[in-house]
Amino acid sequence: MLDVAFNSTGNKLATASMDGRARIYNVFTGACIAILEGHEDEVNTIKFNPQGNRVLTTSNDKTARLWSVDTGAELQVLEGHKDEIFSCQFNYEGDTIITGSKDNTCRIWKDERVVTE
Questions:
Q1: Cα separation of 101 and 87, whole Å?
Q2: Partners of residue 100 on adjacent β-strands
Q3: Is residue 81 a contact partner of residue 107, using CB atoms and an 8 Å limit?
Q4: What is the pLDDT of residues 76-90, one digit of tens each?
Q5: Contact 59/46 with Cβ under 8 angstroms?
Q6: Which residue, 48, 38, 97, is CA-closest to 68?
Q7: Are the beta carbons of 60 and 51 closer than 8 angstroms?
Q8: Which residue of 11, 46, 83, 116 is most buried, as measured by CB atoms within 10 A?
Q9: What fold is seen in the domain 3-116?
Q10: How confident is the model at residue 112, as a pLDDT?
Q11: How many Å apart are CA 45 and CA 39, to the nearest integer?
Q12: Which helix (H) or strand (E) is 14 found in, with range?
């Protein structure tokens, strides 16, 4: 396990793992709600958006991915970093993402594109 996060209401827990997968659990039952598969290397970080309906993961595969909490579906792949991504965060509205990479850059993502580097 490389990272864990609770959603804002505390009823869901998300985990990031070295096996290239992330998982979402129901805290009260312990049941795995979704297994998030798509990264090609270990998943370094995982964050819920403020609304609790999306999860963001980052990986050594140089991508960040946005997922649906309810279905586990991959919604978007954020590509552009030249090295592993080790940090991410949503803004308070949940409509903008920032990622930090070993390539010594941060990228701000909004509406499926890089706004600034």
A1: 7
A2: 87, 106
A3: yes
A4: 999 999 999 999 999
A5: no
A6: 48
A7: no
A8: 46
A9: Methylamine Dehydrogenase; Chain H (2.130.10)
A10: 53
A11: 12
A12: strand 12-16
Amino acid in position 15: T
Q: Where are the domains of the chain?
A: 3-116
Q: Which amino acid is at 113?
A: R
Query: Which amino acid does the sequence have at 115?
Result: V
Q: How many residues does the chain have?
A: 117
| Whole-angstrom distance, CA of residue 73 vs CA of residue 87 | 21
Strand order in the sheet with 85-90: 85-90, 97-101, 106-110, 113-116
Nearest to 10 by CA among 21, 22, 23, 25: 25
Q: Which residues pair with 54 in a beta bridge?
A: 68
* Cβ neighbours of 93 (radius 10 Å): 9
Measured in whole angstroms, how far is the alpha carbon of residue 107 from the centre of its chain? 14
Are 67 and 78 in contact by the 8 Å Cβ rule? The answer is no
C-alpha dihedral over 85, 34, 91, 89, to 10 degrees? -20
CA distance linking residue 96 with residue 102, whole number of Å: 21
Average pLDDT, the chain: 93
Residues contacting 104, CB < 8 A, separation 6+: none
